[in-house]
Structure formats: structure tokens, C-alpha cells
């Protein structure tokens, strides 16, 4: 959804200006999205109790699983749209928009039906106990009923950003956060709905934002807009969307499995409250991760467009600037986690046992946090230029090849501490792999640039 001039400026304006123009709105949106999740946790922690925090943490794997299918479509389509705009193939970009809507509708409905039917067995498998499953079930029933709304909202927002309207994509996200923050205390406290109230507030906020997105895409004066003939699924487009979206899909699937292992391990060694501690740490760390993801979203259309236009020097430049900014963000997270962990986690609960468990876990988790920004940007970089295979390798190296073996082995020697230490160990090893792959790719770009200049 962009005028041609808006799209083509990705190949002409200074990279630093473009990154700021695209990344700042995305960062604001992603930070707001993270705060959106934190608000739920804070209201639930103070309004329902510490065991409700553990119940909420049990739902994280299922939320990751839902996000996996959402990113399969949303990320894949947004990347493909950026590349097609760079190639000035506006007709195909329009077809991608229609396929995004159809795919999200089909996947969203199927996911909701299957998970609702088997919800209790799924939650027990994820680490729920008799004490925590009532909270987890109450929250997820509402979230799953609104799953189609969530998929459609996230998918259209991704397309909006990649098509040249990062500010409007940011507004949609911030609108969702503000509405959710207003509705949370209303449904949790005033209406006495407890944890179910938090879920209702979440879905209602997304419905309102989705209505605004639909209105934007209904504008026929825009380059990309909803019209007849674009909703029929096209095999080539679906294969390309899913092919590119496999990297974040597998990353979220891996995240789902990892959280299950962490929840089960912490429950075994420290009990239900330790799962709540991980839930709090996860929310805090997620704030900084989401900022880096905002940087990645700002980089994605710039890298995708210039890669499609074969302007490799601009691709290299945006990558380097994004890595620098991401490292600053993750270093800030490291300082917060190491210097003021107790103060930070106390925002979620007044239970001293939960505070102590969370603070200890936070210190360990952010041990090597400064380098994780580089690893995240590198993985997203390969995804942004359509190199799905390399992006998948990088995504899985940290979460599957390294972290999962650590989660099985280290607790045998260190108990619950082994679970916490698995995370920073995987961070540093995955970053080394990312550095090697990026070095080889930059050498290739340099050679291609020489060939192009030689021809010219």
C-alpha cells in the first residue's frame, strides 16, 4: 500500500535517513507491543496473584505456536512485497496482499478449532499443574476464539509497513496498546473477570485496530488495495510466501518447544512459582528483543528493495547500521538486568519469593546479551533479502542445535541453574556462527558489486 514514489525512495535516499524513517516507527510499535504484553502480566500479577503469573507463563508456548503460523504468512509476504516493489512488479505485489488475507483466514480458523478441542492436554503437556491450569485455560480460551483476528491484524500490519507506510503501521500497534491498557483494568477489576478479562481486552483492542487497517487497505487510490480477483490462492505466490516465512516459522516453533522444556524443567526443580519467574524474565527480556525486532523491520524493506535492485553497497550499509543500533539496545538490556534486577522484576509482583527467583534468573539470562543483537539482525538480514535457507540455519542454530541440548544436559549437573545458564551459552555460540556466515555473504556482495561496476 504505497505510491510508487514512496516505494522507489528506498533505492535513492541516504541509508541512515531511510533506516531512521522506517525503524523508528517500527521500534515504537514493537516497544508498544512488548509493553502491551507486560501490561497484561502486571495487571494479572497484582490483580489476580503470583500463581496466575505462572498460569500465564504456561500459555507462552501456545502463543508462540500461534505466532509461528502468523509469521509464516506475515513475514514471508512482507519480505516478498518489498522485493517485488524493488523490481517494480506492482501487479504481483497486489496479488500478494490478497493471498495474505486468504491464508490468514484459513490458517487462523484451523488453528483455533484444533487447539480448542485439545486445549487441556496441550496445557498439561506445556507444564501446567492442577494449580495453574485454571488460569491458563481461562486466558487461552478467549485468545484462541480471537485467533483469526490476531493473524489478520498482524499480517496486514506487516504488509502495510513493507509497502511504504511504517508510520501508519506504528499507529495501528500503538492504538492496540492504548486500548488494551484502558480495557485491562476495566475487565479485570471493574467487571471482575480476572485473567479472562485480560484476554478479552486483548482481542477487543485488536478488533478495533484491524478495522482501521481494513479501512486503509480499502482505499482504491493507493497502489496496494483490496479489490476483486486478488484473493484466490496462487500456487507460486503461496510457495514463495511460505518459503521465505519458514525462517521465522521455525524460529517460533523452536521457541515453543524451548519454553515447554524450560517450564517442565523449572517445575521439576523449583516448582510452579519458578515458571512464573521465567514468565517475568521473559517479558523483560522480550522488551529489548522487540526493540531489535523493530530495527529489523525497519531494515527489511530497505534491504529487500535494494537487493532486488542489485544495489549491494546499500544492502551492506543498512546491515552495518542496524547491527550497531541493535548492539546498543541489547547492551542496555544487559546493564538493566545486571545492575537493577530486583527493582525491575518487582514491577510484576509483590511476592518476595517470586521476586528473588526472577531477579536471579534475569541476571543469568542477560549475561551475554550485548552480542545477541548482532545474531538477531544477521538472521533477519538473510530473511530480508529472500535467502530463507540461511535465515533458517541461523534461527535454528541458536534455538535448536545449541539451546535444546543445553536444556537437556546442564540441569543434570546444576539443576534449575543449568536451565537458566543454557540461555546465555546458546547466545554466544550462535553469534559466532552468525559472524562466519555474514562474513562470507559480504565477500559475495563485494564480488557482485565489482562485476556490476565492471559491466557498467
Automatic annotation (TrEMBL):
Presence of the UniProt keyword Transport in the record: yes
Alphabetized Pfam families for the sequence: MatE (PF01554)
Bilayer topology annotation: Multi-pass membrane protein
Principal subcellular localization: membrane
Location(s) in or outside the cell: Cell membrane
Listed transmembrane segments: 20-39, 51-75, 96-119, 139-160, 172-192, 198-217, 237-262, 274-295, 321-341, 361-382, 391-413, 419-439
Keywords: Antibiotic resistance, Cell membrane, Membrane, Transmembrane, Transmembrane helix, Transport
Entries under InterPro entries matching the protein: MATE_fam, MATE_MepA-like, MATE_MepA_subfamily, MdtK-like
PANTHER family per record: MULTIDRUG EXPORT PROTEIN MEPA, SPORULATION PROTEIN YKVU
Similarity annotation: Belongs to the multi antimicrobial extrusion (MATE) (TC 2.A.66.1) family. MepA subfamily.
Protein name: Multidrug export protein MepA
